Amino acid sequence: MAASPLPNPFLPPFSPTSSTQSPNFYFPPSTSVVGSRWATPFVSCSAASVRVGEGVNPDDYHSTIRALNSKGRVPRKSLGQHYMLNSSINEQLAAAANVKEGDVVLEIGPGTGSLTNVLINSGATVLAVEKDSYMAGLVDERFANTNRLKVLNEDFVKCNVSSHMMSLLKSIELSEARSQPAKVVSNIPFNISTDIIKQLLPMGDIFSEVVLLLQEEAALRLVETSLRTSEYRPINVFVNFYSDPELKFKVPRTNFFPQPNVDAAVVSFKLKRAADYPAVSSTKSFFSMVNSAFNGKRKMLRKSLQHICTSLEIEKALEDSSLLPTSRPEELSLDDFVKLHNLIVKH
């Protein structure tokens, strides 16, 4: 018989009989965001009151410490590892994507499997991509008795997720009568959120919806940033080109271990199919133009886009698009950029 793993000296000790209470948790509101304000105040509750169905939360603070100790692991800052301790939030993540029986869900960074557990219990088949080989093994072991989980020990930003998902979907379609698109539901590492979003949103042919738990500031920038503000960037144009984003609810930092320095928020991206994308002759040239425009953010477009055509041609295109010839990139909406691109980019 293999020896039991020794407790990790860098983690707080866990005692099954300990009467020590875990940190307080916060439940997200049941209502969505109204404008830029959160519609409902958060209600504090003790860890002892957090439940999954009829049983005690299997992913609370002590259970998470025990799981990490079993692999001799500590959360790695380089991987952006912050483990969710509140199963109620995982349930609301799944509910935000309306995960139901028969769904196929991609999860990025399953960690100890707390969200994975909720997704599987909702009736979904899950493809979990985990970069940390120890955590990939832990999740695989935790759900060894189900055939509704496939764990890939890969770096998500480098793996061919499209190929993996198509393979999984085809295998399921052969055994079950299903044709609906897959979904993404994930508590992702904050430090690679932009890379993940850029990889996922153009995949409307595979996924119908992407629900991500993000750093709150990043979530607000993606969804609520207005024109003529310093926060308006190429990523806003990208997000709206490929999806319809919606801010769902806020998740205070006290729900994670280790506790990050910022709060989080959940965003839902309803993905568009290719037929619904704005009409541009080339997405590559379109986003190249948008990026060039913002590279000289304080410059007028007639200056920053001179490598595409002359200033006079740019001014005329702006006027033909009902825009001022002195326009700057932060003043243009997605539709404005589409019109400008189709007028000045020659093919």
Structural account:
The protein is α/β, with parallel strands linked by helices and 347 residues long. The protein has 2 domains: 40-276, Vaccinia Virus protein VP39 (Rossmann fold); 283-344, rRNA adenine dimethylase, C-terminal domain (Helicase, Ruva Protein, domain 3), CATH 1.10.8. The protein contains 12 helices and 13 strands. The chain has helices at 61-70, 87-96, 114-121, 133-142, 161-175, 193-200, 216-224, 234-242, 283-295, 301-304, 311-320, 334-344, and strands at residues 25-27, 43-45, 51-52, 55-56, 83-84, 104-108, 125-129, 149-152, 182-187, 207-215, 243-251, 256-257, 264-271. The strands form 4 sheets. Strands 8-7-6-9-10-13-11 form a 7-stranded mixed sheet, with helices on both faces. The protein has a two-stranded antiparallel sheet with strand order 1-2. A two-stranded antiparallel sheet has the order 3-4. Strand 6, helix 3 (114-121) and strand 7 (125-129) form a beta-alpha-beta unit. The longest helix has 15 residues, at 161-175. The model is unreliable at 1-55 (pLDDT under 50).
Secondary-structure topology with pairs:
Layout: E1 25-27, E2 43-45, E3 51-52, E4 55-56, H1 61-70, E5 83-84, H2 87-96, E6 104-108, H3 114-121, E7 125-129, H4 133-142, E8 149-152, H5 161-175, E9 182-187, H6 193-200, E10 207-215, H7 216-224, H8 234-242, E11 243-251, E12 256-257, E13 264-271, H9 283-295, H10 301-304, H11 311-320, H12 334-344
Parallel strand pairs: 6-7, 6-9, 7-8, 9-10
Antiparallel strand pairs: 1-2, 3-4, 5-12, 10-13, 11-13
